[in-house]
Amino acid sequence: MCLAMPMKIVELRGESECMAELGGVRRSVSLQLLDGAAVGDFVLVHAGFAIAKVDEADAEETIAALDECGIDG
User: Fold this and answer.
1) pTM above 0.85, yes or no
2) Which helix H or strand E contains 36, and what residues bound it?
3) Burial 15-39 (b: 16+ CB within 10 A, else e)
4) Residue 72: is its pLDDT beyond 70?
5) Between 2.30.30.140, 3.40.50.300, 3.90.1210.10, 2.40.30.10, what CATH number should domain 5-68 receive?
6) Is pLDDT above 80 for 71?
């Protein structure tokens, strides 16, 4: 099963890469599949690629649900 995780962009690194954070863990994420991402946006990350922007409330709800299931978010 594949899972995309909502992560918050905390730093842009050029036009096609950013640092994103989830649960205090930061990862380098490619923005090659997504236009117009900015610091503070929540994005769905799958296999190191941001694949969609998500609303902050939806991202927080998903993270809370994952935490309830025992999946670190």
Assistant:
1) yes
2) none
3) eeebbbebeeeeeebebeebeebee
4) no
5) 2.30.30.140
6) no
